[in-house]
Amino acid sequence: MPAPEFVEALNEQVAHEFAASQQYVAVAVHYDTETLPRLAAFFYAQAVEERGHAMKMVQYLMDQDSEVIIPPVAGPRNGFDGIVEPIQIALDQEKVVTEQITRLARIARETGDYQSEQFIQWFLKEQVEEVSTMSDLLTTVRRSEANPLWVEEFLAREGFGGGEGETGAPPTAGGDL
After folding, report:
1. Per-residue pLDDT averaged across 7-17, rounded?
2. Any idea what DSSP says for residue 83?
3. Using CA atoms, how far apart are residues 134 and 95, in angstroms rounded to an integer?
4. CB-based contacts of 47: which residues, under 8 Å, 6+ apart?
């Protein structure tokens, strides 16, 4: 059994991951309404990825015979100015999530919960990628603010943010739905 402190914190993190997913949907809708389909697609995919992270955490709790609490989530921010602001919000959100995941790792280590520490390692690695991706995208969008179609071209050309799959990822509750 995971340490009770870890179970409580991981259930809280499930809410954070679902909230991040909702925020990315709101960002994707913003870009969709601005007729920026590649930016929209990128953030729709990010929303699915964040939901998947929550479901990996749910699966871990179930696998460990721990209580799973599907918590309410804070509503996303809607209504953005321009094309830069939503990505700045996304980057800020990823930095907060990194702090939250680091806290989970700290709790696991401090309580001697080595299985949970091993489980959370994948998420620590994932956060390095998430922050880097959002930082790079923010830089690109700032450079292209005068002509958003340059960002669309960049995303098409570079396949930006497509990732390398989730090699070594923990299992996801409900499969990869």
Report:
1. 98
2. T
3. 10
4. 21, 22, 24, 25, 28
| AA letter at 46 | Q
What is the pTM (predicted TM-score) of this model? Answer: 0.90
| Other residues' Cβ atoms within 10 Å of the Cβ of residue 82 | 12
Long-range contacts of residues 65-72, Cβ cutoff 8 Å, at least 24 apart: 65/1, 66/1, 66/2, 66/7, 67/7, 67/11, 68/11, 68/14, 69/11, 69/14, 70/14, 71/11, 71/12, 71/14, 71/15, 71/18, 72/15
The closest alpha carbon to 161, from 177, 146, 141, belongs to 141
105: number of Cβ within 10 Å = 17
Confidence label for 159 from pLDDT (cuts 50, 70 and 90): confident
> Tokens 């990823």 appear where?
94
Q: Evaluate if residue 165 carries a pLDDT over 60.
A: no
- CATH number given to 4-158: 1.20.1260.10
pLDDT of residue 174: 76
> Among all chains, which residue has been given the structure tokens 């729709």?
44
| pLDDT tens-place string over residues 34-90 | 999 999 999 999 999 999 999 999 999 999 999 999 989 989 999 999 999 999 999
